[in-house]
Give the backbone structure.
Amino acid sequence: MQTVKIASLGFPRIGRQRELKFAQEKYWRGELTQEELKSVAKGLRSTHWKWQADAGVTLLPVGDFAYYDQVLTLSATLNAIPERHRDESETTSGEIGLDTLFRVARGRAPTGKEAPAAEMTKYFNTNYHYIVPELTEEQQFSIAYEQLFDEVSEAQALGYQAKPVLLGPVSYLYLAKSVGRDFDKLSLLPQLLIAYEQILNRFSGQGVQWVQLDEPVLALELDSEWQEAITSAYQLLQNRNLNILLASYYGSIGHHQTLVSALPVAAIHLDLVTAPEQLSLFLPHLREDQVLSLGVVNGRNVWAADTDLISERLAVVANDLKTRIWLAPSCSLLHTPVDLDMETKLEPALKQQLAFAKQKLVELAQINTLLSSPNSEESQQIVASCIERRNARDAAADQQVIERVNGLGERDYERDTAFIHRQQLQQDKFQLPLLPTTTIGSFPQTPAIRGLRNRWRKDEISEDFYNQQLQQVTKDTIERQLKLGIDVLVHGEAERNDMVEYFGEQLEGFGFTQFGWVQSYGSRCVKPPLIYGDVSRPNAMTVEWAEYAQSLTEKPVKGMLTGPVTILHWSFAREDISREQIATQIGLAIRDEVVDLQNAGIGIIQIDEPAFREGLPLKKADWEHYLNWAVDAFKLSAAGVADETQIHTHMCYSEFNETIAAIAAMDADVITIETSRSRMELLTAFEDFEYPNEIGPGVYDIHTPNTPTVDEMVILIEKAARKIPVRQLWVNPDCGLKTRTWDEVEPALQNLVQATKVLRRRLG
């Protein structure tokens, strides 16, 4: 059989040692020029293109690189940038520069004036954050930013065949936000399509043959208007000089098969990892000249693919279609670490179970080998390795954990009494004022703290010295909060490297990498743990630090934990058992910690679930099952305590309207949420639902270095008080303060406390 084509939908841009992150941050600090930043970026693109070409990819993705976010890059390309972020020179010339993108994303850049940053939220059901486009009813689109075209030329100059990748027009509109008067975003589609046509014509003029347009919105349950928008868009965008690969991912598009199969596109990409069944729906309707891109390797996880089983499933279709199928990851590899070869300290038994972005392309080549020469010696070695990996996975089961999960009953998931009774007991215990103030958990991880941790990990300092230094940091953090007048304190989490990794390091069933970084947003990278086995908690994880912090003050200090659903979603979880089973195991481990904290005298315990919503299946028909087990995992973690113990949770960047009933079912005594960028718009869901428990809407955007004024926060608190009874309201920042500096944090919190005092006097 002829070999099939190997395709790539996109590659991580951060670099295997986070070179882009460090260059960005140096540029923002004024330690690097813009040209030096661009030089680092160019070097990364060159390296990543070479790796993909070496793996057999002939159409190299261009446009997957972004200095902050690819959706923001597209907004700049389309000249859809808010006026408040534009530099005066850009207003005159009509062209957009790189610093404009940073002002949109961060609220400031090395040049130009500060302005409130644009809203940022999760990209579909991933932990990647995109900058939400702001579109007005009078929006006009035109090409105003050249990065995408420059990178096509850059790839071509290196001898590569470039395949530009950009978000499709309908998905772009779907993800955008209407500002000003309320209007139908689809009314902008005709004007937007003119700009897309101009972009495609530019590509054609550059000699491009293939363009990848991503329409992940197809994985959703679209109403008729959005379906018609897809049809009209691709009818208009068909271009005789260009072949369009229509890509969708993160779920099945089988429910739109009739719609998609009728589109005049040269190729269709299917995510066969999340929805393998959709292949049989599309095969009978594939045109004779049409290519099918098969996403058979998981672009969102790190576990090595069972390439032998994949090739068996594909053998018939590969033989029938021959060169008309492409082998590809399920989605862009943006969501995976870069290069497993960097991991020199992993146990061999674990390392052989893994594949990062670079290795996933090799897996595609292995599938190609198995399809084209199944009886070769190389193919036999590939099959033997797959069998060895599966046998190793099966041998890792922990029967005690499995039996404990099987023994759970309904009472294990419920608090003793209803919230209305717990609320009075908790108020009597803590005697908190109207609009109690708190923070979300973390305080600045200064260079001194990071340096200390690095020296400790390298055994350059003793553990006793390390802990003594962290105690001093914790003491300083408590004293700063006392001086500011915060009502409910936190210990600051100086001992923690990451809100998930820290717990994973102390739980059984978790493994860790040195360089397994993935981009969350901008220069923010996370290094998810690996859940490779059954999860349990051998020892207390946070009690000692919580006890020490509480010993420093009579004010309550929150115990700070990460919830089971977030630990699951923000880890690379094993694929041989269900995510529901993993969440239940983690929930039991966190429950043990919650009970120990309570028994140690910690009366307020926060179990963060910022990733709760991102686990939602893209189709609403599948929501109920997910929400049931996600709520149960949280309730399991929290239900072991007395009524007087106050349970908090925190959620990030979520549209709450459609999940508010599930959030209420979690039965947390207090929930804190991010609302400042939306100017309290996200609070409407809690208002409409008449949310019964207490709530802390964020009044301070921690993702920008700008300091909010007292008046600005007063306005936000007043808006919140018009939506939620004031007796239910807390006042807090949007999120943890780990990424900020003390010079930024203290004046902002000082203003937050002052704003609260103003409102206490005003609201009584």
